[in-house]
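I am still getting used to backbone structure tokens and would like to learn alongside you. To get us started, please write out a protein record for me. Once you have written the record down, we can walk along the chain together.
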Amino acid sequence: TLDDRIAAATVDAYRHYQDLHADYVDEWVCTRGEMFDAVATAEQSLSAFSPELDVVVLSGYHEFRPVERRLIERLADELPMIALLPLHQDGRSGVDAVAEDALEVYEALDFETVELEPADESGQTFGTITESLYCPNPDTVPAPDTLRWRELPTPEREIRFVARELRTELANGRDPDDLAVVVPGTEAYSGYVEDTFDTFDIPHVTTAASQLNRTFTGSVVHDLLNLAEPDPRAEDLTSLLANPLVDVVDTDQANAVTAAARRRDTVSVSPLLDDLDDEAAALIEELLATLESLRTGDIEDATETLCRLLDVQFDLEAATEDYANGAEKAVEQRAYDLVDEVLSSFESLSAVNSDLSPLALFTRAFDGVPIRVPQRAAGGHVEVMGMLDARMRSFEKVFLVGVTSEHFPVTPERPAFFEEMTDAHPRFDTGDERLRGRYLFATLLANVDELTITTPETGDDESAVVRSPVLDELQRVTGIEPEDGVDDRVGSREDLQRHVAATADRRAAVSRAGDRGDLSPEQTKRTDRGLHCAANRGTAGLSDHDGVLDPETVDEVYPLSEREPYSASRIERYVECGFKFYADEVLGIEDPDDVEVVPTPLETGSYVHDVLERFFADLQDETEDGVDLTNFDRDDLATHLREVAVDELRDADFEYGGLFYERWKAELFAGLGAGESAPYEAGSKPHDAPEQGLFATFLDNELSRDGAGRPHLFEAPFGEGLPDSDAGPFTVERPDGSTVSIRGYIDRVDVSRDGEQPTLTLYDYKTGRAPYMTKTTSGTKFQLPIYLLAVAEVVDGDLFEEGSLSATYYQVRPPNDLKVPRGVESKFDSEVELRRFLNHVVPEWLGQIDEAIANGRFHTTLLSARGANCRYCDYRRACDVRHHRKREFVDKVHEDDTAYVPLRVRDDEDIEAVMSDD
């Protein structure tokens, strides 16, 4: 009898379980034990119930629960029966200890014992080993050549080793059906197996049990049930439309839905419909309306609706038949059969009363449905399976992967009370996982011709791992030691490339690989070209593979009519990196359309520019005195600025929505008042705005600038070819008389007439961080110098000639980071030196840039990785910039008379010498 304390707690726990079961489990739901009991206690004869049965074969069981024993007793009484039970020793000790229960059942039922000895030499050899495991035996059994133990540095290296071994076996003519990979830790290794086996072109199939909702077919049902909820989620809709078995909308429409969901950052489906065309929106609305009956109708109508959707609208059965081939196709077809079985079971439930909606019943029914790859689908494939799946299976060669204490044998952790309870009475005995593991290992060992065991030295996070105690016992019996070291054999093209990279003459190695057929003619040619390119890129000078084109080629692909007039930003992009400039401007490679949830930096900058321009332009009268903000009330200015910003936001027509977009607007508008025109709700969590946003901070900053010049011109155009502008050509003349044509807009011109000499101050708004002025004086930033040269075209000539010049950046960075650094003029001792820089140095630099482009100098950047923003470049994986050899590269490029080398990267000259007349 149980101890009173344990007995009382156990009875109480079971009573609570029964109460919960009665409350939450429907009457038609049966457990596995209840089904077994129903068969064992059935009044009808089993032989009469299934007269087609000649014999029952029981295999794979080594222990039985009481209800299972009663079922076996009933079967043995009425039908001929054969039970298969692998025994390695006496059936009661050693590795057979866990099988004692099954042996006693069979003996009690008077089964006739027939012993089968190993039929071949390998079976006898491995049988000798299994007979000695976990038995006191002083004699060591020599490890046969067919038993190997390989220790690799990491789990990934383990799988790569196994993949190379499999490639070798398959290349030698071994049938994939004769090979298997057994992985006790299937979840931990599944990602490595899929990726590596695909890389090595190994035909494989995972036969371990999985879940229905992990198949594409199950995902369709799962997504439809989620979309039937009262407020369906956008992620379920995008998942459904992205499913390869679903083609209710075309690919472009499916991509549009996904892009809209990411851009709006919305949880609900409803906001997405506004971003779709009428046809797609109507289709989705119709689908959602149809699914509503799963929530509101009766079980019969709901079942009919779901079946109609799957069979008619989605034509799921045909989709699974057309999907892929081999094992993947078999999995989806098996999944469809399971879905059909589950839905068919609801046909008998129409008369069963339930307080749950059909949707809740469907969700319960499909939740956690297991699925296995049909055995027929594994034909022609290497099977990857777990330890339990390998029992009672035989193969010629097996790889047992990841035999560590973490994965095998797995000992479940239970609260101490339950351990005490299960130890108190045999009825509650859950068995010993260690004994089960020993038995499964011995059974696997006895059923193969060759076994290779692999273990990792460290885990994924470089933590130490402990070998399975089963290996300690195997080592005690056989004296086997692991082979360690890295496996560097060539088993895939990836391995081949690594080996070629380590050879001295790579091009010769590639040629030999092509001659042997390891590489196809196309691959050989492409790889040879790549090596030739890499060799040239490995040198410091400019070669044909360093973005160098002939002038004649430039005239064809990027003629003068397309180059000029230049913009300041285009010139700066070239100086930043010629290769990126070539890819963007010459080849016209467009950046991938990243799905953004807020306006991009470019969109934000354009919007802020438009707002600030209109703010001043609308206040300006027809006088030449500019805008004096002190003549206006601060509240009136805030209202005006808010109205302009809202109007421009409406004109921008941004297609964004969701939390992040609300935050973006709050960072701009906070502090401008809470009028009806405010585009966000101030203080609504979780979007609590900063106290002062960008526009309010800008207004306060402008009002506090005592003594500064008055804003005079806004977005003033210069140069020809600009939209909504009739400005004539603007050219910068070099000292040799040649010219460079430029165009653009000056963001803002302030004029001060308070002193003896008028002052012209030019501003370039930056919604990002403003560059350092030294980048302007060292030949990498040209916006401010070009503005200063062009301002003569947009203001009165006398004002330019007589006035004092100033130019700086005006940092307007959301949410409220405003800064107006000292202007470029601060880098010069006098107005004369500034104008000398503008009239002589800058034109010469611009001319050199124009010549470099015309002569095809599109090499990679000469700046540092930070200076060229390499971290954010879309071409960083292709350009092969080698910053550790930057100095040598700059020196070589400087020897090229047609290349432009910024003063910033040159050591042989200083700015004073460059800017002098000498």
Remarks:
- The chain has six domains: 31-116, 147-209+377-478, 210-371, 493-537, 540-595+715-759+769-808+818-918, 596-706.
- The longest strand covers residues 804-813.
- The chain is about 45% helix and 10% strand.
- The longest helix spans residues 831-854.
